[in-house]
Specification:
Elements (H helix, E strand, L loop, with lengths): L9 E3 L11 H11 L2 H7 L7 E7 L2 E7 L6 E5 L7 E5 L11 H19 L35 E2 L2 E2 L4 H13 L9 E6 L4 E6 L21 H16 L13 H11 L7 E4 L5 H13 L4 E6 L6 E11 L2 E5 L8 E4 L22 E4 L16 E3 L4 E2 L3 E3 L3 E10 L8 E9 L5 E5 L13 E8 L7 E11 L4 E4 L10 E6 L2 E5 L6 E8 L8 E10 L5 E10 L6 E4 L3 E5 L3 E10 L7 E9 L9 E5 L7 E11 L5 E11 L1 E4 L2 E6 L8 E4 L3 E4 L3 E8 L9 E9 L5 E3 L6 E4 L22 E3 L5 E2 L6 E6 L2 E6 L1
Antiparallel strand pairs: 1-32, 2-3, 3-4, 4-5, 5-14, 6-7, 8-9, 10-15, 11-12, 11-15, 12-13, 13-14, 16-19, 17-19, 18-26, 19-22, 20-21, 20-23, 23-24, 23-25, 25-26, 27-28, 28-32, 29-30, 29-31, 29-33, 33-34, 35-36, 36-41, 37-40, 38-39, 38-42, 42-43, 42-44, 45-46, 45-47, 47-48
Helix pairs in contact: 4-5, 5-6
Amino acid sequence: MKKTSLLIALGMIAATAGAEVLTPSQALSRALGENPSAMRKIASKERALTPALTIGRGAEPELYVMTPSAESLLIVSAESETPALLGYSDSASFDPQDIPDGLAALLERYAYEIQAVRSGIAGVATGGRAEMAPIQPLCRTTWNQDRPYNNSCPKLNGEYTMTGCVATAMAQVLKALEWPKQCNGGSETYRWTNGNQNLTLNFDEVTLNWAAMKDNYTSSGVTVASKAVATLMQAVGYAGHMNYSPSASGTYGVQLAAGLINHFDYDCTLSYELHEWYTQAEWEEMIYNELAAGIPVYYDGATPDNSAGHAFVVDGYAGDGYFHLNWGWGGMSDGYYRLTALDPSSQGIGGSTSGYNFSQGVIVGLKKGATTPLSEKPMIFTVWNPFGVEKTTVSQGSAAKFTGGFFNLGPLTVNKVTPGVKFVDEATGEETLLRSTTSYNNNIQTNEGFNEFTVTMAKTLADGTYTVYPTIYDRTSKVTFDMRSRVGGYGYLIATVANSTVTFSEPARAAVKASNVKLTSKAYTNTPFSITATITNSTSLPYNGGVIPAIFNPTTGAVVKVFENFALEVAPNSSQQISLMCGLDSSVAAGSYDFCIMDENGKMAGNAIRINVTARPEAGIMKVLDLKVTETAQNNLTFEAKVTCTEGYFSGPMYIVIFPRSGQGSNLDLFMSEPLLMSAGDIKTVTISSTFATGKPGVTYSVAAYYINPDNYNVPMEGATLLQFQLSDGQYGESDAIEEVSSDDEPTEWFDLQGRRLSAPGRGVTIGRQGNKIIKRAL
């Protein structure tokens, strides 16, 4: 279960003119006024319309989830400049403490986009959506990932593993189509990473008993019906090379697409499509066309920080941009949602030039029966980076080297291919295909490719102006395919032919410059340091990409360390303040270095500044000077702590740990701050907000400030006493007892001592969190 987190690390300079933050009642009134009478029917049910969940920060919520009854929900925007109603259901429950992963990710996407509108990153356009007739939901199933669905999944240490959201989503799509009756393709073996063993399934022996499968299951017992659905779930998971786990199982959508071709008798013309290749309007039209053909759509995506991926089913359409989503969570929260919080437009998040899409993909083109020979399968290659050329001027008859990184994103391995380019005459539209002097005969698997290729510029190219696109030629089928690229001018070049010379230029693209770069902390070995900078986009196009901080040897110019890419978007003709946390490791010795910020293509975005890295002092001792509760809403419980470092140097987060009133026993929840960088004598005021999901109004709780001490234990800060509060009225007082926090449960979320999320416990000391408990582990 993923807890929605909406920490936005970008501080924008200008807000959108005319924007207004709406109260719950204002947001609801606006939604009811702008939407059909069906919405009024939902909102007229018996329960008072106060938010069941508010997502936002402090006094500026982004959206509200309201539950008019036990089986209905409304998601309304708290921003006046976005569509009023974002999602609704009149037949599904909503539990703020048990949110389907896919819905949590969508809510996070909505909130991020609303933040973008307020910050001026994205504009909202009205209209632009074609009229499309409603389509009733195609899936009758409300399946889940646990028992009995996972009865045939492998066990790990004697414990059942989850089917995985990918398998549950695609299984429901296949049930709606009821194809095939018999799997095929023989045995397949793959390596199960979590289980450290091979998994094998003979698909020729898998018969799918569609008639026995129920629309929903209320018992985990073994019956004909439960065996039928468990068999399907296992086959889908194995075909997609599922990495099983008792807490969450996962794989990739493109791997699943290959499994459908190899073992489920679907034609090889199906494809896994990325959102970044389409404008929002094109994306929605493609999905709608699948639904109109009677085919539910497998849909996956990720949270804005790409920390978690989710898969679900789009299986219906209500009109005005509302698609019916089946979350694969036993029917919980199934309903109608926008695929974006912004209307489709050629600008803005989710639109053409932005290309912002949270790594979304869909499987489309499901066709029963494999009638197309594999030798004639379509090629899906993409240019990963902006399409470029090594030399901008090349004589006709000479070779040009094209760059960008070219990868196979089709579901199947390909061979015998030749890259090339397509010149399109801007005056006549006439196309000229030129192939590379290098061909590839060996297998190119999914997500594999090559970085560059060369093409001889034909002497037959007539004088004129051309648009040049990368292509891939299948030497078996003798068909040339255009390579895909993200929208916004990244997949082509402009070429002018004159006087036997081809001159290339890039199309208009956004570019950024970094200025006012400042070191805002000490720079010590094996310790993070912080940088602030102003990022300016002086072009008329939105910049959607990132910046890359790095340090260089000031004498030789050699790269010493490249830090993590910082993703951001900057609106046209605007600036944005950013704060970077750059972690030094053992590869960086004490000394002087040049620090600079590069754009997403690795080009210097501004002048370098000199930083001096010195040996790290002893680990810091932290003391809390004051702790108070400033907001007592359950979904926005906020603490303000005044802390100081009394000796040494502290680098890491602080924690607010919540206990029962007595302060005895296990902790109930833990809130973590952003990393703090503090020298002896420094004093900072830290604000920490989160949702206290298990808290109950009227109950008194105690909290205290914790940190990781020099011995790598999570302990109370010096001066820490228990602070008491209630969610209902915010009253609180002080007492004197506190108990150390520990847990014997196996955690599912891991963080290092700087508060950075880890995929698994790393070497050294890591902090784990499972539900409302924390644990320290040393490896």
